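Service request form, structural biology core

Requester: graduate student, group of Dr. S.
Request type: structure prediction, single chain
Budget code: on file
Notes: please return the result as structure tokens.

Sequence provided:
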Amino acid sequence: MLIDRARILELIPHQGGMCLLDAVEAWDADHVRCSSRSHLDPANPLRRDGALSAVHCLEYGAQAMAVHGGLLGAAEGAPPKPGFLVAGRDLKLAVQRLDDITEPLLVEARRVLADGGNLIYTFSVHAGRRELASGRATVMTVENA
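Core staff response, request fulfilled:
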């Protein structure tokens, strides 16, 4: 079941142009797969000097993690929990820029650890079968924000 951008906006704190994801294509208890074409938008707020660096794949991955957390919470009837990206590790970039990739981005995040409010995910960003970036990120959720 496809989850559209309007629902994504209800699940994450990123609003307006800062919400980089267009849809959730699949998800389960440990994994989410999202799609996006925001890398092609000249108004993408992460662009600098007309270009969108591949380092921003970390933000695409972090937003997929936030969506996953929001979906899990909603499934339990709980509101989304605010969280902070506290670490990025093992970031591997296969390209320098995203704005010259013409295909939609597929952003996947897989939860590998959930210990209270501490979460670790691996993520990857693809264009078609081509992996553009991958890495690992740690998120800390805030219970009473």
